[in-house]
Amino acid sequence: MARRSFLQWPVVRQLSTGDLLGRGPAVTSPQTRTITPRTATADRVVQSVCPYCAVGCGQRVYVKDEKVVQIEGDPDSPISRGRLCPKGSASEQLVNSPGRQTGVLYRAPRSTEWQQLDLATAIDMVADRFIETRRRTWQQEDEKGRLLRRTMGIASLGGATLDNEENYLIKKLFTAAGAVQIENQARI
Amino acid sequence: MANADCIIIQGSNMAECHPVGYQWVAEAKARGAKVIHVDPRFTRTSAVADKHIPIRAGSDVVLLGALINYVLTHDLWFKEYVSAYTNAATLVHADYRDAEDLGGLFSGFDPETGAYDTASWAYAEQGGDSIDDPGAGTEHGSDASARAAGHQFGSGGPPLEHAQVQRDDTLQDPRTVFQILKRHYARYTPEMVQDMCGIDVRDFEYLAHAITENSGRERTTCFAYSVGWTQHSLGAQFIRSAAILQLLLGNVGRPGSGIMALRGHASIQGSTDIPTLFNLLPGYLPMPSAGRHDTLSEYLEAIASKKQKGYWTDADSYTVSLLKAWWGDAARAENDWAYDYLPRLNGAHGTYETVMSMLEDKVEGYFLLGQNPAVGSSNGRMQRMGMSHLKWLVVRDLNLIESATWWKDGPEIESGELRTEDIETEVFFMPAATHVEKAGSFTQTQRLLQWRHQAVAPPGECQSELQFFFQLGQRIREKLAGSEDERDRPLLDLTWDYPTDEHGDPDAEAVLAEINGRHLNGPDAGKPLSAYTELRADGSTSAGCWIYTGVYADGINHAANRKPGQEQGPAASEWGWAWPANRRILYNRASADPAGKPWSERKKYVWWDQEKGRWVGDDVPDFPVDRAPGSQPDPDLGGAAALTGDDPFIMQADGKGWLFAPKGVVDGPLPTHYEPQESPVANALYPQQQNPARLVFPRADNLSAPSAGTPGADVYPYVFTTYRLTEHHTAGGMSRWLPYLSELQPEMFCEVSPELAAERGLEPYGWATIISARSAIEAKVLVTDRMRPLAVGGHTVHQIGLPYHWGVGSNAVVSGDAANDLLGVTLDPNVQIQESKVASCDIRPGRRPRGEELLALVSEYQARAGVTIETGNRAVTNPALEGIEPGPGEGGRAAGGPG
Amino acid sequence: MGQLSGPTDPTADAHWEHSHPRKGFFTDTSICIGCKACEVACKEWNHNPQDGNLELLGSSYDNTGSLGASTWRHVAFIEQGQERITEARETGRALVNLGMPRIGPPAPAAPAATDLAEADTTPPDTADFRWLISSDVCKHCTHAGCLDVCPTGALFRTEFGTVVVQDDVCNGCGTCVAGCPFGVIERRSNGTVKVATSREEQHTEHPAVPNVGVAQKCTLCYDRLVADETPACAKACPTTSIKFGNHDDMVETARERVAGLHAQGLTEARLYGANELDGVGGTGSVFLLLDEPEVYGLPPDPRVPTADLPRMYRRAGMAVAGMVAAAAVAFLKGRA
């Protein structure tokens, strides 16, 4: 051990490697000698797609200990060939941003502040309001007696950043409930 | 695009907004292709293009019309392509009158409703009558507009009764589309371009040469656009003009050709295909309208006649399969497959109308799903005031966006118009999962579905929309269980039994399988469908979105196909899955000549193999695969069976590319230049100033500035245009919370020319206040030669550039005034998209006033300009033109005529 | 002992046993779209803190200003009128075969340049305005001033011929900062990933800023090169404006590109950093510029402070020898 440490002394390494000016292998630190990219130590790599614009660049998501440690371009993608723009390159920060909200917040009528609410309660409250508003604002037919079967009391906006499967469930549920004012960025 | 010989980027800032897509342009350029950027501003796209041509915002139809005119008068059109593949030879109804004859209006305009009756634009029928659309009579333009009917044709053209058209293959008959086109654009000259667009004649000629020299058998030109074209009161017509030009030059359906729509959101294409839109059902089927679609048979008749050509004739199969997917066994033949479970439209229910309903307290609950309208929608004040009238608001996002916090730190709190303690709205902020925390598919801008695998679980209480809506649906159904109320049947009968994992979360792949569809009975019961041609109208198949059928063929998730690009050919058909049928270029039959041979070796793509008796090539042929080039089936067969061997446009009712649109466009069969809602320039082409069919909202909270020639126009003398920067994403919800992006573009700014800075005393990097008829905002000043004053109609037009990423709030890393607060709401009548690319304003040095003084400043300007709710909102500019309705055979020439 | 100036192989000089080919960048500014993906990809990979005060810098679209301890790729934006473009075209034509303009011995007039000068190379579309965009980075000099003056061995020459700071060794003395002729290396001072406004209380704590006080600069992603991966900036670059590879190939590609642009009449193109006779022995990162280096904020004649060291040592050595001789004489005299 002591002997090995002695061999790691820069001056000894300077003489033994021929790096007399101490600019190369003679001065590497233990950290340097064991350096490994976190892409190599990740537990798994998952193929994904950039969430920003509609070019659809391929991404590789590197996961270590169930946390995303790096997101970069997927060179296999025939669309993007591994490249990403600044937004795509910032995707890891999007996921791990310190400013990101991870808890439900609720603002009561006339309140000046948020309060916390648990998720199950929040979904239950939204379901109650959904049903109540739907009943209150129901339109069965128009003035000429033609079927309308809808509510104009519930609306939604959004979908262009969501998955096809998500848009499908939104459209399906809202249409079945008679809510027609469903819109997204495609109109904007 | 990498195969193009010339690329025109117009109405798009591609290098900034689609940097990675731009690699294909860069590659084409390195190969020798010419790249020209036509844009009001010199942007990062201009910096790497061969040439930048500055244009006045909103004048694109003049330029494109002049290019059409140039191609026609110099006889540069691609004759064999145009004759065989477009409707150039088709005759139009005798009653048709052109905008050239009526001072800027087409025949059929009704000043009462501000909309067109499009009957006189129809094709002439063999025999003398006109070919109208099938179903319950002719729909009035205002109703079609309310349904945003133009949007419906996202995957094909509008219906015709049948396809027995009259043709004059010599193209000499004055009623042929070709002759009408020639007359319509005759006054769109290089001089007119100079006068209206501010583009000098040499630049115009450079552009015209570049395009025409790079079109034909051997070469192709490609156009790329994005919201720089769509966000206008005649946005759909901008794109139509480019389509006409490209059809004339043979640049559709061929490698390196076409008109590329560059879309701005990861799955904005998907959210149109599977629409979270009021007017559509999945696969571009219309939402039913009361009075037009009261029964299933009325609905199906109105979509497509069984006698017309193309694949829309099978709309019954698509519709019934959708109803089966949603309501399963409750959808039966005897109840018209539960057609009456669908709610009905009876007017426009778009996002802006919805916000106006909020202000009238008609909307109680609102879901915001990854969208930030307080910053990203036009007339931001109207958006926020609307939300303050809600009973409840659910905001689902990654960050505490301004649309979630307006009640405590929005601009109206600062101005005193709202007081937090008075706002009754309940707000739920529900944290969302990011793209790596859920599995699912995005559909990108070339219609390609790409699956994302889940990398990690969402943190804390974050949920995907899939999880949230599945659970919300479950909860609602539980609460309604046992209800005898007939109106609850659609919810209770809904198929909502997706397999779940150990946390109770639904399997996204099971949802994709439902979208794809399956056989419901017979030996294949339960088996996924392979192609939309397998869909049936007898209830034996289900499919949640017919154009996506095939994505889950053989039970394999083809959206997750990931054969590396470097191991595949240029079409890369084993990466993801493109709708329809994994086809990469639509209408690719047009890449071969009428005899089925490639137009040239260089542009070979899909061709007829005589020996095999099939269409073959580098892509999936977009044509009945065994229909020989010379086939002339009986047109009465209808549907795909009626397509002749040279009908490449298989979703159009006559199989042809439409130079002239006899149906489907509500504001004119040919694109015609009108000025924007607000403009300091008078329309030099017609007495009609604005698009007469545009949708206006005359309201005190949505005032318009006076246009050229009316008093007060000089109070708002400058043009402003809004846009995005590379470093940010739309309203900032996914960028202004990230330090690495925020530091790159930290502050709201405006871009002005040195001349304008001198005229108004603006200091470089100092503050300026920009005032419109709606609001006033402040921004730092970038004085730059990249903004160039244009000489238009004898005077100088200054344009001001405003990125729209910032918003007023206290939670983001960077915040600032929102450009969208300056905008009003005036919509394109085809698709109901707002005009946000051009409006009028004033600019002055210094920061804007705070509190009530801000409102006072805006009012002072309004008073000085004499603005009222009527200002700018007349449908017809010249009252002498109102009530024009030329009878058949009459000249119909109006007073005032072409000016 | 390795050389301190002139053409050489720096990896061999550092006595690496298993040396790789020297690696480097070629940044082709003529196809840069200024998207700044390189800046973000670099920061994200290296977890460098946000810097700056979140205000417009007053420099076109550039809001990071310059290379520094936390910004290892920096994109500059320069707006120019026609006069300047014509001038750049002229100066570029004169410099066609010079690696780095205005330095080193007078270049022998390259025949290729003469040929080009005689041909009609007026490009079809002479712009009356242009927006130069260029992504700058550490030059990884053949003779690196920062490395040569580092007293602690914190800076070292890697087996790829690049120059890297070892943050576990650096004591923050700052000698290297003065040693860099390009002003690239800096000590990390007050850069933080803090946000401009108050945060809600449930927000997680901000990550601590790493390596405060330590000298920092581009590592050419040493921690990726060891696993045969491309540096983050070059991998992200949408238009391949940033290319990465063997230094020799990069220089070769750069020369071909300049020749290609000159053939199109775009004689404003010139190389920067490819002249091994310059004051730093040529750089590991080479650039294709479209104007004089000063226009981009680059020194026209960078010179490593140690370049004069051998000469100084020789003189000092002579002086020492003289003094020793004198002392010896004196000693001997004294003894005698």
Task: Characterize this entry briefly.
The complex is a heterotrimer of chains A (188), B (899) and C (336). Chain A is of the alpha+beta class.
Structure description:
The complex is a heterotrimer of chains A (188), B (899) and C (336). By secondary structure, chain A is an alpha+beta fold. Chain A has 3 domains: 2-33, no CATH class; 44-96, Single Sheet (N-terminal domain of TfIIb), CATH 2.20.25; 137-187, no CATH class. Chain A has helices at residues 2-8, 10-17, 30-33, 86-89, 91-96, 119-136, 164-177; strands at residues 44-49, 58-64, 67-73, 105-107, 115-116, 138-141, 147-157, 179-183. The relative contact order of chain A is 0.06. Among the domains of chain B are: 6-85 and 181-261, 3-Layer(aba) Sandwich (Dimethylsulfoxide Reductase, domain 2), CATH 3.40.228; 280-286 and 300-344 and 447-459 and 486-583, no CATH class; 351-433 and 460-485, Rossmann fold (3-Layer(aba) Sandwich), CATH 3.40.50; 713-878, Barwin-like endoglucanases (Beta Barrel), CATH 2.40.40. Chain B contains 25 helices and 29 strands. A 6-stranded mixed beta sheet of chain B has the order 23-25-24-29-22-28. In chain B, strands 3-2-1-8-9 form a 5-stranded parallel beta sheet. In chain B, helix 4 runs parallel beside helix 11 (235-248) and helix 15 (351-359) packs across helix 17 (380-387). The longest helix of chain B is centred in the middle third of the chain and has 16 residues, at 465-480. Chain B starts with 5 loop residues before the first strand and ends in a 34-residue tail after the last helix. Chain C is α+β, with helices and mostly antiparallel strands. Chain C has 2 domains: 10-303, 2-Layer Sandwich (Alpha-Beta Plaits), CATH 3.30.70.20; 306-336. Chain C is built from 10 helices and 10 strands. Chain C has helices at 10-13, 37-46, 82-94, 111-118, 145-149, 175-179, 222-225, 232-236, 247-263, 309-335; strands at 23-28, 73-81, 129-137, 155-157, 163-165, 186-187, 215-216, 242-246, 270-272, 286-289. Chain C has a 4-stranded mixed beta sheet. In chain C, strands 2-3 form a two-stranded antiparallel ribbon. A two-stranded antiparallel ribbon of chain C has the order 4-5. Chain C is globular and about 80 Å long. Chains in contact: A-B, A-C, B-C.
